[in-house]
Amino acid sequence: MTSILTYTLKNLSSPSKRALRFSVRPLSCSSQLRTAPAVQTKSKKTLAKANVRNVVVVDGVRIPFLLSGTSYKDLMAHDLARAALSGLLHRTNVPKEVIDYIVFGTVIQEVKTSNVAREASLGAGFSDKTPAHTVTMACISSNQAMTTAVGLIAAGQSDVVVAGGVELMSDIPIRHSRKMRRMMLDLNKAKTLGQRLSLISKFRLDFLAPELISVSEFSTNETMGHSADRLAAAFSVSRLEQDEYALRSHSLAKKAQDEGLLSDIVPFKVPGKDTVTKDNGIRPSSLEQMAKLKPAFIKPYGTVTAANSSFLTDGASAMLIMAEEKALAMGYKPKAYLRDFLYVSQDPKDQLLLGPTYATPKVLEKAGLTMNDIDVFEFHEAFSGQILANFKAMDSDWFSQNYMGRKTKIGSPPLEKFNKWGGSLSLGHPFGATGCRLVITAANRLQKEGGQYALVAACAAGGQGHAMIVEAYPK
């Protein structure tokens, strides 16, 4: 497949093929921070389907998302997931015995708790009769956990499912080299002293070199940051545009934090330390300060920096998902319906981070909606360049026709509806936990702003993506 970067840059020089060469709308933070009038609830159709169970979100929580290496650094992922589950129990008062199933997403697994959903649920006091499993799908792992819950309920297999996700980047597993591992395994099997001495005689110092977890794509051997840099270049997203967008994210997150809008957070008493009550990665700066940072991946000419990228984050989230009739029978007032969703995948080299562009028109068509019907947009922000490149791809007839097989563009989300309480760039991005944060934020924003439909979308490693329609529960 022809590289997007090569093909785009070659064709941008032609006056007849400049579909991708336009500026992102100005990202004036001051205008974004002004209090917007509440969206008036429109009398739109509901997305309920005949003979299909309505699946609802009763509530969702997360422990504060923290920069890796800070207050959670001495814990295990199991501890964070358990805290999120305990917070959900406390918030909803749901009886533990009514939970039919638990599913969690995670990306970098701790060997001791490979099925972290099961270990965390036992630690949080759930019944040992409640099955639990763990899924992994890169940055959309908890999205997969949620949609697994939707499937179980829609199929009539369960009535009440807890879905969530967790990531602990402060303590990632580092292995011995393959040579050292092989020697240790062979030594364990050796039956005589002679066999052991023979194996030990083959030891070399380079066997001790550790094997770090790779942050690159297995299929391309390229880091996501490199992909973001190339994607920004392909879509002519400038360094200034990226810094402006990052500043917007941090400024909106700080405003939401100060106004108490991040109500999904539950406090977490870290053993031996203080109680953590808020995210610690929200740090509004200035464009002048951001401009001083050097490129993080492609040097010296790249545009992706630490300031316009999401940071390594520790955190966990959990949601109580039910069949509507079960929730009402138990006296709950749900927050939202989980409606149509889908997953997409494309070329992991040149289109690694374009999942939202591919997923958005498909999920809208599946639901019978248009972009104008959406009141709230919540997209995962891996990098500013990734978000802005998706905006440009979504707003390009040329890209739609040449890469997506569509006649016309879908159009990009209006900024006044987009990630108004901050995003992954500012709130943090624990890989396995972000999907649940996106959905509960969308549900809370619908309630706060009086909207009916939200669209949640995210990209993920491997060139994959997810999108879902969330519908506000009637007042």
TrEMBL record:
<keyword id="KW-0999">Mitochondrion inner membrane</keyword>
<feature type="domain" description="Thiolase C-terminal">
    <location>
        <begin position="332"/>
        <end position="471"/>
    </location>
</feature>
<dbReference type="GO" id="GO:0016507">
    <property type="term" value="C:mitochondrial fatty acid beta-oxidation multienzyme complex"/>
</dbReference>
<dbReference type="InterPro" id="IPR020615">
    <property type="entry name" value="Thiolase_acyl_enz_int_AS"/>
</dbReference>
<keyword id="KW-0012">Acyltransferase</keyword>
<dbReference type="InterPro" id="IPR020616">
    <property type="entry name" value="Thiolase_N"/>
</dbReference>
<dbReference type="GO" id="GO:0005741">
    <property type="term" value="C:mitochondrial outer membrane"/>
</dbReference>
<dbReference type="GO" id="GO:0005783">
    <property type="term" value="C:endoplasmic reticulum"/>
</dbReference>
<keyword id="KW-0276">Fatty acid metabolism</keyword>
<keyword id="KW-0496">Mitochondrion</keyword>
<dbReference type="InterPro" id="IPR016039">
    <property type="entry name" value="Thiolase-like"/>
</dbReference>
<dbReference type="InterPro" id="IPR020613">
    <property type="entry name" value="Thiolase_CS"/>
</dbReference>
<comment type="pathway">
    <text>Lipid metabolism; fatty acid beta-oxidation.</text>
</comment>
<dbReference type="GO" id="GO:0005743">
    <property type="term" value="C:mitochondrial inner membrane"/>
</dbReference>
<keyword id="KW-0007">Acetylation</keyword>
<comment type="similarity">
    <text>Belongs to the thiolase-like superfamily. Thiolase family.</text>
</comment>
<dbReference type="InterPro" id="IPR020617">
    <property type="entry name" value="Thiolase_C"/>
</dbReference>
<dbReference type="GO" id="GO:0006635">
    <property type="term" value="P:fatty acid beta-oxidation"/>
</dbReference>
<keyword id="KW-0443">Lipid metabolism</keyword>
<comment type="subunit">
    <text>Heterotetramer of 2 alpha/HADHA and 2 beta/HADHB subunits; forms the mitochondrial trifunctional enzyme. Also purified as higher order heterooligomers including a 4 alpha/HADHA and 4 beta/HADHB heterooligomer which physiological significance remains unclear. The mitochondrial trifunctional enzyme interacts with MTLN. Interacts with RSAD2/viperin.</text>
</comment>
<keyword id="KW-0472">Membrane</keyword>
<dbReference type="Pfam" id="PF00108">
    <property type="entry name" value="Thiolase_N"/>
</dbReference>
<dbReference type="GO" id="GO:0003988">
    <property type="term" value="F:acetyl-CoA C-acyltransferase activity"/>
</dbReference>
<feature type="domain" description="Thiolase N-terminal">
    <location>
        <begin position="55"/>
        <end position="325"/>
    </location>
</feature>
<keyword id="KW-0808">Transferase</keyword>
<dbReference type="InterPro" id="IPR002155">
    <property type="entry name" value="Thiolase"/>
</dbReference>
<comment type="function">
    <text>Mitochondrial trifunctional enzyme catalyzes the last three of the four reactions of the mitochondrial beta-oxidation pathway. The mitochondrial beta-oxidation pathway is the major energy-producing process in tissues and is performed through four consecutive reactions breaking down fatty acids into acetyl-CoA. Among the enzymes involved in this pathway, the trifunctional enzyme exhibits specificity for long-chain fatty acids.</text>
</comment>
<dbReference type="InterPro" id="IPR020610">
    <property type="entry name" value="Thiolase_AS"/>
</dbReference>
<keyword id="KW-0256">Endoplasmic reticulum</keyword>
<dbReference type="GO" id="GO:0050633">
    <property type="term" value="F:acetyl-CoA C-myristoyltransferase activity"/>
</dbReference>
<dbReference type="Pfam" id="PF02803">
    <property type="entry name" value="Thiolase_C"/>
</dbReference>
<protein>
    <recommendedName>
        <fullName>Trifunctional enzyme subunit beta, mitochondrial</fullName>
        <ecNumber>2.3.1.155</ecNumber>
        <ecNumber>2.3.1.16</ecNumber>
    </recommendedName>
</protein>
<keyword id="KW-1000">Mitochondrion outer membrane</keyword>
<keyword id="KW-0809">Transit peptide</keyword>
